[in-house]
Amino acid sequence: MAHTKAQRAVKGNRDSISKRLGVKLYGGQNAQPGNVIVRQRGSKVQAGDGVLLSKDFTLIALREGTVEFYKRMGKQYVRVV
What we know:
Layout: H1 8-11, E1 22-23, E2 30-31, E3 36-39, E4 45-47, E5 51-53, E6 59-61, E7 65-72, E8 75-80
Parallel strand pairs: 4-8
Antiparallel strand pairs: 1-3, 2-7, 3-6, 5-6, 7-8
């Protein structure tokens, strides 16, 4: 038999495409204005000096410099220095 007896068995057997989230530029790497530093859902990493938080929570470099991650008061931040 080359077919499925009950179609219900296959209905939930699909996977969504990955969204390619995560850190794109790591600490110590050079950033140019407009470079994406982190793609995220929600603000897991906050925007520091020289970084823009866009409406979909993507962190974007505003100036040229070196990416630096740091923690303050229990929250993680990223800045471009």
